[in-house]
Design goal:
Largest sheet: none
Helix content: over 70%
Radius of gyration: 23 Å
CATH superfamily: MetI-like
Number of strands: 0
CATH topology: MetI-like fold
Strand content: under 5%
Structural class: mainly alpha
Number of domains: 1
Number of helices: 10
Order of helices and strands: HHHHHHHHHH
Distance between the termini: 33 Å
CATH architecture: Orthogonal Bundle
């Protein structure tokens, strides 16, 4: 019996090829718009020509590392605190009634509005930027956790109680698994916001990072450098979201793929 050639599973996934077609179409439209004069920005060819020189410099990869460190540090702290507090609020009605108005008061404040206080409160610019990413991620996650707890069918809890399940078993076997899809939706939203926040913070006060790299290209009047910086930010955010989706699939093996 002839052996079948092995190939990665993602190559057989239509979603991969549809997404790839979308990216190719985006760059094709960009190149066409540049060729016929609808854009004054550099085209994909001009950007690609400047890419080897930029990526060969250590500062480019240090910028990636600096931004990623700030994003994942702030995101990790926000995820731990938001999930813990959100689950506690979902279980305790008294805690929720006491705490939720405070969250609703602080939630509409943009993360960057905390910048002046952060500069005064935190001793270093690194701590300031990490705190801002934390503020960007915290509220989407905790709201998603509360939404997940609220969507758990109370009949499951009643049935478990009638069968003699303990509160701890109900939490680990019903509440937490039922809330997980919403938790990871909050993670996906939050990781995107953290990249937006950290880039703006780096443009304001950092000496490295993708935000600083992009701003430095603007200061040096390098349009290709600006575009490369922006695309790097986009790819960094896309990769971060892909990691969150991958972790979600591993954490929820019972979820069917669409």
């Amino acid at each position: 019996m002839p052996m079948r050639a092995w190939r990665p599973a993602w190559l057989a996934n239509p979603a991969f090829w549809q997404g790839l077609a979308g990216l190719v179409g985006f760059f094709a439209v960009w190149a066409l718009a540049r060729r016929i004069g609808w854009l004054v920005l550099p085209g994909p060819g001009e950007v690609a020509a400047g890419l080897p020189r930029l990526v060969s410099e250590p500062t480019y990869w240090l910028s990636w590392a600096g931004s990623a460190q700030r994003v994942f540090a702030g995101f990790a702290v926000a995820a731990i605190l938001a999930v813990a507090l959100g689950l506690a609020m979902g279980i305790s009605a008294k805690l929720r009634l006491t705490t939720f108005p405070v969250l609703e008061l602080l939630r509409p404040i943009p993360p960057l509005a905390w910048l002046p206080l952060s500069i005064l409160f935190w001793p270093t610019s690194e701590a300031t930027m990490t705190f801002l990413t934390f503020m960007g991620a915290f509220f989407p996650i905790i709201i998603s956790v509360l939404a997940g707890i609220d969507r758990v069918d109370p009949r499951y809890i009643e049935a478990a109680l009638s069968l003699g399940s303990s509160r701890r078993a109900i939490f680990w076997r019903i509440l937490l698994p039922g809330a997980l899809p919403y938790v990871f939706t909050g993670f996906a939203i939050a990781i995107g916001i953290t990249w937006e926040v950290v880039i703006a913070a780096e443009m304001a006060s950092a000496t490295n990072g993708l935000g600083y790299l992009t701003w430095n290209a603007y200061v040096n009047h390098s349009l290709p450098g600006i575009i490369i910086g922006m695309l790097s930010i986009g790819f960094a955010g896309m990769a971060s979201s892909a990691i969150v989706v991958w972790l979600g699939r591993r954490a929820m093996p019972w979820q069917t793929r669409t």
